[in-house]
Amino acid sequence: MRHGSLFGSKEYCEHIKSKYLSKKKLDVEIPQKRLVLREDDLNTIIRKAASVMECNISDLINPKRISGLEKEKRDILIYVLWNTGLYRNYEIAKIFNLSYSSVSKQVSNIKRKLRKESQIKRMYKKINSLFKT
Question: The pTM is what?
Answer without folding.
Answer: 0.68
